[in-house]
């Protein structure tokens, strides 16, 4: 059985740190907490769980802090988490099983990361990251912000152990990462392709759409991106142009993504919404149905959005079929959407309305409406 050091870097995480450690502590043999300058009770909380609490002077560089935390580890493998991450009980059991079964030729283990959610708790963004690494490999972190492990060799296992991000909504410094990137730019630091991508994403998040477009384009033009990277950026560019009111450019990047893979659900839904806004309901139906029918990506490292293939297109199909007077089909898709969102009042109201409309048609056969095949 392998042993695991949990390594974390933290700052002012009193609201989430204990929850994180509690969710994983059964599976780890050592906990390393590196504090980068907390002014709340973070260090006190950390001290309840481990004697290995270290101070580290913040240098506006996340990779440096991560590397320092890894240097403190003593176990066979290192697991890294952020303070607002958790392992849900089923995922903890998977990690415990992995401790007993991990093959000796595996140097790193990747895990899905559910990092953003809709208001109903459904993951809207799923990515995969290397989470567990053999300590003796001495893998290093790179990148001042949105840091990543630099790994060029070693056996890899793509596991199904899910790490869940539980965002701390009380954190007030939402522009911290943006400021770090701007500090790097002003000091003349040359961005890597990864830096360029994540700076674009920070600009995008803060509604600086025109600047974000420039940096997304720079990333696309670099030679250090994968097909999955390009598809992801196509989605980001389409969203920027939507918010900028340029629907032609939005569609251009939607269709650009189709040249790299079959249409992904998020692009189908975006295109369907374009037709829905124009009240071209048949066209919208086509694309929403395609979103539902799209198979999950074969590549385990693909970024995915399950909402775009589940409740969202079904809810929207319910609206489209209602406007097409196909009430039974509208009811059918609202009913499926309610399976994902059983307490959503909008869907419940839709179902009541549609039941009444269907009843009216049945009571007056001469007014029966033409329906469309599913």
UniProtKB/TrEMBL annotation:
Coiled-coil intervals, chain numbering: none
Taxonomic source organism: Paenibacillus phytohabitans
Domain of life, per lineage: Bacteria
Protein name as annotated: Glycosyltransferase
PANTHER family assigned: GLYCOSYLTRANSFERASE, POLY-BETA-1,6-N-ACETYL-D-GLUCOSAMINE SYNTHASE
Residues covered by the Glycosyltransferase 2-like domain: 5-107
High-level lineage: Bacteria, Bacillati, Bacillota, Bacilli, Bacillales
